[in-house]
């Protein structure tokens, strides 16, 4: 893959030139980097924006600001991290080298302080959905219901469900669970979704022969 010349930017790190491009999709900021002038291994890094929100009248969460910006300084840190961990920007025909959000959070470091009334509530929802994958996969009642449920039909998770954190309950965040279909090897996919932030979805794979 070669990044488009007009949309990408150049950066020099330790005497070598690279080209980088930022793109945004729902949920993450995506950074693509390649050696300038060379079609080698592409690096892709994904960043959580760590947006802050305020709660409006009626309980709707309104986005206020984005905490993470991918600056040239951050791009340099990503390049150095990639090179130290196996990225080969001058090696052709290699699969893309990925850096996921857990690592890019470490690269970004401390986030700016929040203003009064602001919360990174979407981050809270992401963490809760991640935790629910384990708890719901082991819950026999939900397993029985979802194994026979119509595909993609949402079932609301009770607000007092035992696996919801106290912080989530205090904020009134809601979640749903659904049968997302079958895998090729016969597993059923459970989807867990934040009602307040529908782009926050995660999945777990379940053997229908085990309740």
Q: Would you kindly provide a written description of the structure presented here, covering whatever features stand out?
A:
This protein is α+β, with helices and mostly antiparallel strands and 211 residues long. The chain folds into 2 domains: 9-108, no CATH class; 121-206. It is 25% helix and 30% strand. It has helices at 72-84, 101-108, 121-137, 140-147, 166-171; strands at 9-13, 16-25, 28-35, 43-47, 52-55, 61-65, 97-99, 155-156, 175-182, 188-194, 201-206. The strands form 3 sheets. It has a 5-stranded mixed β-sheet with strand order 1-2-3-4-7. The protein has a 4-stranded antiparallel β-sheet with strand order 8-9-10-11. Strands 5-6 form a two-stranded antiparallel sheet. Strand 9 (175-182) and strand 10 (188-194) form a beta hairpin. The longest helix is centred in the middle third of the chain and has 17 residues, at 121-137. The N and C termini lie far apart (45 Å).
Spell out the helices and strands N to C.
Answer: EEEEEEHEHHHEHEEE
Order of strands, widest sheet: 1-2-3-4-7
Number of domains: 2
User: What's the total helix number?
Assistant: 5
Give the rounded overall mean pLDDT: 94
Strand content: 25-35%
Radius of gyration: 21 Å
In total, the number of strands is: 11
**Uncertain spans:** none
Distance between the termini: 45 Å
Main beta-sheet strand count, sense and barrel state: 5 strands, mixed
Structural class: alpha+beta
Range of helix content: 10-25%
Write down the overall geometry. Answer: globular
């Amino acid at each position: 893959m070669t990044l488009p010349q007009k949309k990408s930017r150049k950066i020099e790190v330790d005497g070598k030139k690279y080209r980088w491009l930022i793109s945004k999709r729902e949920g993450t900021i995506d950074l693509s980097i390649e050696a300038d002038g060379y079609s080698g291994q592409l690096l892709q890094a994904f960043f959580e924006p760590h947006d802050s929100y305020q709660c409006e009248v009626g309980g709707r969460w309104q986005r206020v600001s984005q905490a993470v910006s991918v600056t040239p300084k951050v791009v340099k840190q990503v390049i150095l991290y990639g090179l130290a961990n196996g990225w080969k920007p001058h090696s052709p025909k290699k699969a893309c080298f990925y850096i996921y959000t857990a690592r890019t959070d470490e690269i970004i470091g401390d986030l700016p302080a929040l203003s009064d009334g602001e919360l990174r509530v979407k981050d809270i929802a992401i963490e809760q959905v991640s935790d629910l994958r384990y708890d719901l996969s082991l819950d026999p009642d939900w397993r029985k219901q979802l194994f026979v449920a119509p595909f993609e039909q949402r079932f609301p998770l009770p607000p007092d469900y035992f696996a919801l954190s106290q912080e989530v309950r205090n904020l009134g965040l809601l979640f749903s669970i659904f049968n997302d279909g079958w895998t090729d090897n016969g597993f059923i996919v459970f989807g867990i979704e934040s009602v307040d932030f529908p782009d926050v979805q995660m999945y777990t794979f379940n053997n229908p022969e085990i309740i």
